[in-house]
């Protein structure tokens, strides 16, 4: 009885004094001055953070200067923080440079959690839904068909497809956003990608200091490029009445009176930054996933044959529609397995605790930086048998139970804004490619390396492939 009283007392004390009485977070030894900074400079950071999780558990801390970083490496802890306690962990790290990069906090991806941010995200989300309902399917189909033409043109010579995938993914977004698509060789596209790639590196930086050394000149260059696109687009809207794009919808919402959906007045800077967010979020991610899919299929050609047979049996000679996905379980399993093994945003985007809270019984003070290690959660041996092996079969025949542990798009208030676009893109691009082509290694003993290069986006190392048209 005295034991029960003791634990009851401890429980109530923890409720009132969580900071002092909750257990301290495990983590590697913190060095004088450096703390655990060196841990964050390792090659393939997602892999390294996952190996630390094997030693310290699915929640541990790293000390970097005055900042505590908490790394979550299981679906359970990530769900607790991002979904169950979403408003406690919906913030983003602050920094002087981050503020400038995000247009004075007007970016959706880097902006901190506030009423203004919520209004901005809500309006961007509904503009996106509206535009996607009208045209997303046909926009992706058009890009899939033009990608097909490009691949046919290679005449089975070995090629690196990463740039073609980037152009296809980027054209989906630029069509949705500006009603415009580009040729692979166009100078305008090169300029746009050049500046976006540099800025994408900011998304995953847990270090305030890294943000503060970011060259601001690049931000000015990005803003000039986007501004000129927006200006051109507005003139076009006036003369040709181009509507139906996300930008048109966002510009219209600026004129709407304040109300339930729009609680704060938004400005053109918000439209500008939403455009940047969509272009950054929507280009490298989808392209990287396509490269990973081809890389894994080269390692397991029988999976490729199985998906091809399924496509031919279910669809006969027609091209697939997104509504066919439930009738194509092998293709859906392939998509899930690539997202599991190589989540293209492996550490999501760092979060910040907006108030004192807790995760898995540990006290987490306000302003702690939280890294959702999606890569770690997707390799958790407690959930996935043989976690390092590419096995789409795990999602077939009743193996669907673990889809709850699949979190490639994050969750909660910061769930990937482009999730619905991405899901349709992955499905249609993969279905079109695998229906029309067989992917073969470029030579004997030349299978792609599957470790990858990890920055904010987890990309496959460059590799060549032979693309053979199906009869
Ligand atoms: C954020 C994954 C495609 C736009 C994110 C996050 C992840 C993610 C993990 C971070 C969530 C967090 O902070 O916890 C992916 C994957 C994709 C993909 C796996 C494709 C395979 C796209 C596309 C777009 C997009 C196509 C836009 C058209 C965004 C934006 C954010 C975001 C704007 C920031 C959301 C916010 O901070 O509120 N994405 N994404 N993503 N993504 Fe995606």
Automatic annotation (TrEMBL):
Pfam families: p450. It is an enzyme of class 1 (oxidoreductase). It is a peripheral membrane protein. The keyword Metal-binding applies. Keywords: Endoplasmic reticulum, Heme, Iron, Lipid-binding, Membrane, Metal-binding, Microsome, Monooxygenase, Oxidoreductase, Steroid-binding, Steroidogenesis, Transmembrane, Transmembrane helix. Its EC number is 1.14.14.16. Heme binds at residue 416. Its cofactor is heme b; heme. The keyword Transmembrane helix applies. GO terms for molecular function: heme binding; iron ion binding; steroid 17-alpha-monooxygenase activity; steroid 21-monooxygenase activity; steroid binding. GO terms for cellular component: endoplasmic reticulum membrane. PROSITE patterns: CYTOCHROME_P450. It is found in: Endoplasmic reticulum membrane; Microsome membrane. GO terms for biological process: hormone biosynthetic process; progesterone metabolic process; steroid biosynthetic process. Belongs to the cytochrome P450 family. This is Steroid 21-hydroxylase. It comes from Megalops atlanticus. The lineage of its organism: Eukaryota, Metazoa, Chordata, Craniata, Vertebrata.
């Amino acid at each position: 009885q005295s034991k029960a009283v003791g634990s009851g007392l401890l429980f109530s004390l923890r409720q009132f004094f969580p900071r002092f009485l909750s257990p301290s977070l495990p983590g590697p030894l913190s060095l004088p001055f450096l703390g655990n900074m060196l841990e964050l400079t390792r090659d393939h950071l997602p892999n390294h953070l996952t190996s630390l999780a094997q030693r310290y558990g699915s929640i541990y801390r790293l000390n970097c200067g005055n900042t505590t970083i908490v790394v979550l490496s299981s679906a359970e802890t990530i769900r607790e923080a991002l979904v169950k306690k979403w408003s406690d962990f919906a913030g983003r790290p602050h920094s002087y440079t981050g503020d400038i990069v995000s247009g004075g906090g007007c970016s959706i991806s880097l902006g901190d959690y506030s009423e203004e941010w919520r209004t901005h995200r809500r309006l961007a989300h509904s503009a996106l839904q509206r535009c996607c309902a009208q045209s997303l399917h046909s926009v992706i189909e058009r890009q899939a068909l033009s990608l097909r033409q490009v691949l046919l043109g290679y005449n089975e010579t070995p090629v690196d497809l990463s740039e073609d995938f980037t152009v296809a993914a980027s054209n989906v977004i630029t069509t949705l956003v500006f009603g415009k698509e580009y040729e692979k060789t166009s100078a305008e596209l090169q300029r746009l990608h050049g500046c976006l790639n540099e800025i994408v590196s900011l998304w995953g930086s847990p270090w305030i200091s890294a943000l503060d050394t970011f060259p601001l000149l690049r931000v000015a260059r990005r803003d000039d490029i986007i501004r000129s696109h927006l200006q051109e687009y507005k003139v076009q809207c006036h003369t040709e009445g181009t509507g139906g794009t996300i930008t048109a919808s966002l510009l219209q919402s600026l004129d709407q009176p304040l109300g339930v959906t729009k609680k704060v007045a938004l400005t053109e800077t918000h439209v500008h930054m939403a455009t940047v967010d969509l272009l950054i979020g929507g280009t490298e991610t989808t392209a990287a996933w396509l490269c990973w899919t081809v890389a894994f299929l080269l390692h397991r050609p029988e999976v490729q044959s199985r998906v091809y047979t399924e496509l031919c049996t279910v669809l006969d000679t027609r091209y697939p529609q997104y509504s066919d996905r439930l009738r194509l379980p092998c293709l859906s399993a392939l998509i899930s397995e690539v997202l599991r093994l190589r989540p293209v945003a492996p550490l999501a985007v760092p979060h910040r605790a907006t108030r004192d809270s807790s995760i898995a019984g540990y006290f987490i003070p306000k302003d702690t930086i939280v890294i959702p290690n999606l890569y770690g959660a997707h390799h958790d041996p407690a959930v996935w048998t043989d976690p390092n092996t590419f096995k789409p079969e795990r999602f077939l025949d009743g193996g669907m139970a673990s889809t709850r542990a699949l979190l490639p798009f994050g969750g909660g208030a910061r769930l990937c804004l482009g999730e619905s676009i991405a899901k349709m893109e992955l499905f249609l691009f993969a279905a079109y490619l695998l229906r029309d082509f067989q992917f073969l290694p470029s030579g004997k003993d030349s299978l792609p390396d599957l470790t990858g290069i990890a920055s904010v986006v987890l990309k496959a190392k460059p590799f060549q492939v032979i693309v053979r048209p199906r009869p």
